[in-house]
Amino acid sequence: MKKILLSITISLLVIHTKADDGHKLWLRDKKALPVNITCSINSPTINIAINELKQAWLGKANASISLRIVKNPALKNDGFIINSSGVEALTEAGILYGVYELLRRQQTGQITTGIIISNPSYNYRILNHWDNPDGSIERGYAGQSIFWRKENAFTVTDNDKKLWQEYARANASVGINGAVLNNVNASPLILNEDYLNRTKAIAAILRPYGVKVYLSAKFSSPMQSGGLKSNDPLDPEVIKWWNNKIKEIYSVIPDFGGFLIKANSEGQPGPQDYNRTHADGANMLADALQPYGGIVMWRAFVYSPNDKDRAKQAYNEFMPLDGKFRDNVIIQVKNGPVDFQPREPFSPLFGSMKKTPVMPEFQITQEYLGHSIHLVFLSTMWEECLQSDTYEYGKGSTVAKCTDGSLRPQKNTAIAGVANIGLDTNWCGHDFAQANWYAFGRLAWNNKLKSEQIADEWIKLTFYETQSITSSNNKLAWEQNFLNPVKQMMLESREAAVNYMTPLGLHHIMSANEHYGPGPWWAPARMRADWTPPYYHKADSTGLGFNRTKSGSDAVSQYNEPLASQLNNPNTCPDNVLLWFHHLPWNFKMKSGKTLWDELCIHYDKGIQQVRAFQKIWDKAEAYVDKERFEKVQRKLRSQMNNAVLWKDGCLLYFQQFSKMPIPAYLERPVNNLDDIIKNDTPQRRRPA
Amino acid sequence: MKKILLSITISLLVIHTKADDGHKLWLRDKKALPVNITCSINSPTINIAINELKQAWLGKANASISLRIVKNPALKNDGFIINSSGVEALTEAGILYGVYELLRRQQTGQITTGIIISNPSYNYRILNHWDNPDGSIERGYAGQSIFWRKENAFTVTDNDKKLWQEYARANASVGINGAVLNNVNASPLILNEDYLNRTKAIAAILRPYGVKVYLSAKFSSPMQSGGLKSNDPLDPEVIKWWNNKIKEIYSVIPDFGGFLIKANSEGQPGPQDYNRTHADGANMLADALQPYGGIVMWRAFVYSPNDKDRAKQAYNEFMPLDGKFRDNVIIQVKNGPVDFQPREPFSPLFGSMKKTPVMPEFQITQEYLGHSIHLVFLSTMWEECLQSDTYEYGKGSTVAKCTDGSLRPQKNTAIAGVANIGLDTNWCGHDFAQANWYAFGRLAWNNKLKSEQIADEWIKLTFYETQSITSSNNKLAWEQNFLNPVKQMMLESREAAVNYMTPLGLHHIMSANEHYGPGPWWAPARMRADWTPPYYHKADSTGLGFNRTKSGSDAVSQYNEPLASQLNNPNTCPDNVLLWFHHLPWNFKMKSGKTLWDELCIHYDKGIQQVRAFQKIWDKAEAYVDKERFEKVQRKLRSQMNNAVLWKDGCLLYFQQFSKMPIPAYLERPVNNLDDIIKNDTPQRRRPA
What we know:
Chain A is of the alpha/beta class. Chain A has helices spanning about 1-15, 45-55, 90-110, 160-175, 195-205, 220-225, 235-250, 280-290, 310-320, 380-385, 400-405, 435-445, 450-465, 475-500, 535, 565-570, 580, 595-620, 625-660, 675-680, and strands spanning about 35-40, 65-70, 80-85, 85-90, 115-120, 125-130, 180, 210-215, 260, 295-300, 330-335, 360-365, 415-420. Chain A has three domains: about 30-120, Chitobiase, domain 2 (2-Layer Sandwich); about 125-445, Glycosidases (TIM Barrel); about 495-545 and about 585-685, Alpha-d-glucuronidase, C-terminal Domain.
């Protein structure tokens, strides 16, 4: 009898659900039930909506559903209403979004009855692709570009079209309605005829899904592509060149969305090269785009090598320009004041600009968060930013409300995410990185969503397969053994990464070698200081952290009261950004009663214990995942664990040189030696984006 | 008040004892008390004994000590008596050993009163140096040879003499009385005049310390050095050549010890090349050495590529020759039947040869046990071998008794250890590897010693410094916080290595790349099978392990009853050699009730948990060790931990391909992927020794 039981136990473990390469994302094939759909419109977008319903209907069999364009004051923009009769919206895109919402609710077990009204938080919900014309992707960890390639660069194949359609569908299913197709470190090539024609082909595929195309334009295009003698935005020749170029673009792509501009940032050309302001530059382009309905997304990611505090620069450059931008300009601001770190306080620009639309820029690709190797669910990071209180209009002035038009009238509201998409079969390299694409779309649509719900939805859509659930392996078991632990892992994963990389407000201490491993020591001679970690952590014998208080760089004063005062005082400043704002003695007494050094050690150690626990969670879930994705994620978790330990060891052993204090005896000891870690790290020239 | 307490805690941690480079080994400088020594003899050896007493006397101040050569039937060989009047012995060397014993007892707090009689377990207590004439050392991990070098190869410097003297003193202090100065894979060069003259210079330094020199001779020397047409041991020309060569050697070094021979083993030439037996070869040399009192140590480490079970070969080749060797031949047998693995059963030759002296060969250098990186105290391994019961003459016929003359009269008894000594300042690379040199000497002198006592002595001699012990940091604290935990670590360390490398009787599954990391997969095409791990572990879908039972290779029958039957049955075979003797199903039920696979996982996991605990033990001991040695050992423990995890991950993931069973959910998960481990291992051609 025992032998029989044993063989059952074992065989259970090899009953995997069928292999899955992850290519279908959260839109996996369903065994749909029949449904009757009525709609008076015949259009590409409506036909997509109808097909989606037919392919995936899990509601009452033979139910009758109508899709209707209506006028309803409860609806805004591409919002929709789901009620017992079907989906209503102001626009065809709204109908499509409503259909995806209805199907998602059916698939995830959310209520579908009653009246569901949903309006998007932002008008513009945009992916930024840092894709280069040669097909490479800056900070891309999932293969080459799906849009551009080096060989046969301008041939549009059926495979291209199929992939672009799948891409558009995935975006539409979560409400993303725009895509900047090329890198913010833009090549002037992108505005040439060949690239515009390829952009046209892409736009044609994306259009029925409600996804507009945008391009990053290089500010020096007039000289580099047009042969002009200047790029001065007030130069009539320059203005004329841009007007003609934009006219050309719209002749090719009539619904072109507009430009994303990185100017006077990290060596990129810009209006300051001609003593003009960001506003001068942005407005010139905005004026040229305005007749066509195009917009300018102008990045505020600026800093110069001689700043005493890089974190202050964007605010300092842009606040004086508040109100000076055309109304089709939106200032695109990274979530934090430095650069997509595992944790930053929110950028003070969110709580400060009152007359200019500001849009958050999140980074979906995990430049600083373990590339496509670490499992890090970024939704909690974005939620944290969106829910941060800026106090701009008093308590409750969250970043979300300061950017979505809740607190002041804005013609345009927008949000951007730097995409993590490439030619990898599963799009994102890491199967769980798909969740970040998903989460960005969901939060762009509804910036009040909780990460817990997003994770719950995504896991159900991505992993649950009714056809594989047997009686002994039923839904309840799936929820207990897979959904709940995996969800917990996802929700904890970003804090784990912060713990093992940059706890307590540390930031920008990564290896110069592609920003993957630890590198707090990296500071070659003649390297500009603000590209080296010691500029940020300021470790010395007296302590650790960047003094941004009133006695330091005074970056705290860029925040509104009472937040500024709270941050200014180390006893009220939250632990999780403490070293962002303070340089504190190694034996500073933390809120826990422990020293700063001990807390630092404890946080790093906790990070690796968390990843170790993630490994156990995933391995225990083996019976509930297809073998292909199970093993891929398992492999990556192993590498993540290894890298997490490297982070812990590298940072603690480096900082210990200054603290001269022992790692608390109850914590795991380092397993790497500092000089080995440094030796094995081969820094390349940083290419910030 | 709290602040004051804190600073005290910290300052305690930085009060290190003074830096120590480890060069003085267990013979550190003492603050000696005055002592009056009387001795009627004036000789180099006695003068050394007197100096040692004067430099290190920690007994009663101004005590009177006499050193006397006596005839006492209680004494054998170089044994000694310590009593209230001093030290008595048959020989000057015996006096010296007695002095070292007396001083050691004073330094380690052992009793020095009453009458202490001590005779050596073996007449010949020999280090084998695998040093090549060019100064390299096969399986050496502590720098180049202290005897030979490439540049200025035949110049004897004062530094050479000083180092050789320190070496001789260290050997004498633990009773080692012989040194084979060159590699068993011998170069014929070593018997040339230049090398013999250098050997003479070494012998001159070693002689007063009672250490004789030996050489490894290449069996093909007659042809390679003498220009003869044969090496046939029965060829009169060959016999003549060896007679002349040996005559030459003794003319240079009158007390030359003899030869160590590796013949017909791993490509080395030997008598079998001429259809002669090992006995023919050994006896020819023995006859030539006999007039001078020299001996032949003839290695039984033989196996051929077409053996079905390499483990049986030595027994099969040598047992038929039992009784056919001259009485100045000793058969040198590695502790286990294969090759210095982390754990092997004892070689059955120890319990079988009745008419031929057999000497154990232990490997002090850690070829298969982590080189000079892993902290592995080998004393427990050797103790385990020495105390293994062969049942040769009934119960209690331990390997120790079968080799030391206890059970049958033997003219010569001997033991050899392959040295771990090189030009590194601390001699052995790892500070704790010194303990293995020490332990070999102590066990060679007294094969009944317990490893616990050896470790206790060594730690006290090596780390305790009266001058550094303050009132708040006293001897009791030192014992509680340093001696006891460090001793525990040492005593557990070999089992830890077995756990994370080769638990449950696994063996020879190391990387071909210098035998450091794991390599159970390594099996290139056309490589002789018995040099590849799969030959030894035989993992397949049906199970794991080498079937050496009666139904397999029947190696069990080389052991005496009742041991043979005990080993033959998987239910009575000890777990720690189970897979040595059995190929068992992955779900075989172990004595614990768990499956073989689970026990395998548990053992590998335990190994890494043990090393992790060692790291904590060592770090907690920081205040009690000089900074230099503390940090060196700390660094090595980190690397050991890393390598232990690599072993665990590599082996479990490799074997899991066959077992198809999950690593138990309560164990830590792998953090390395199998293909990465294999890729990063760059196998070189194995050069076995």
